[in-house]
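Sample pair:
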Amino acid sequence: MRHRHAGKLLSRSYEHRKALYRNLMIAMIEHRRIKTTLAKAKAVQPEIEKLITLAREDTPHARRMALSKLSSKVAMRKLFTFAPQEYGGRNGGYTRVTKMGPRMGDGAEMALIEFV
């Protein structure tokens, strides 16, 4: 039983899952939308929402916190340039997950995650 265990494991170790989330968040910030599996999109959505909430206030502490999650200065700067302008007056719901159907090779459910 997985009582009181938040988040999806995605059949990966903690380090692998952390790296996967980091890479997905960086790709999403750089490209504004990414195509991935539905499970990964649903798993990374709360993480990217927390980053945008953090980036709405542009303080040195918020930048350090975002950099610790992203480990990419370019993505961090890009996040802090568009997040306060586009989402300053919005109280959550910064991303959208759209189902795209099964993948041709293995039938995995694909999804498009993008900024609203």
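Residues 7 and 13 are 13 Å apart (CA to CA).
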